[in-house]
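Predict the holo structure. Ligand: magnesium ion.
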Amino acid sequence: MKEPLLSLKDLKVSFFNNSGEVKVIRGVSFNLEKGEVLGVVGESGSGKSVTSMSIIKLLKGTGKITNGEIVYKGENLVNKIEKEMMKIRGNDIAMIFQDPMTSLNPVFTVGTQISDVIRRHQGLSKTEAKNKAIEMLRMVGIPSPEERYNNYPHEFSGGMRQRAIIAMALSCEPELLIADEPTTALDVTIQAQILELLMELKEKMDTSIILITHDLGVVANTCNRVIVMYGGLIMEEGTVDDIFYNPMHPYTKGLLQSLP
Ligand code: ADP
Ligand code: MG
């Protein structure tokens, strides 16, 4: 049988505060096949972001993986040192963070931030990296990318900023993109455009995607399979049709009923 691109096996994550250990991810397992768009849904606080940050080992604060395996292309990432993880983040697994300010630095131009990422990971010259960054900006639908290259993040609209963040994430042609609520901060019409863009790029670049969202409508339009999280556990997993038309778990039924 073909090996999945990514496989989480009984992942547990805790945070540690003054009064001790807070278990936040309590045993999460799933597979992601190459080419798949896997939706991760669940209410706020259910553990979607912590799970995704565990995969690239960028847990904040006192977060620690206490159990399990994260197998990417046959290799367990859990025990990899930071230097190896940096390489993986640069070449294999890219992430779009829930908070857009985590991705773009306000004091540097959008273009230089993208070309810096390209230079760091692909060893291109300054001019080559700049040209590639402009190409990426063009590809994500930024008008006049040669001029826009020199703009600062605040000179972009919210939708344009998100396009630039997608350009940055995809500039290293990752095999896996983890997008954590990539459209939550945007107006509804812009949300649809950004999702459409992501799906177009997915086809073009053959990227597999983990799409975290609390929006079941988004899942219905974009995902092959979906995982439903609650309280740090996976409540249910299935095809989009399974989950929408034949939910097994009471929590999923409730989630569907709460749809507008
Ligand atoms: P979601 O993305 O599904 O909304 P998160 O993964 O962000 O949820 O959070 C899951 C749980 O982990 C929540 O209870 C949250 O309070 C806790 N948590 C997240 N980040 C931290 C942190 N840096 N320190 C302590 N607890 C955290
Ligand atoms: Mg989150």
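The mean pLDDT is 92. Residues 188-205 form the longest helix (18 residues).
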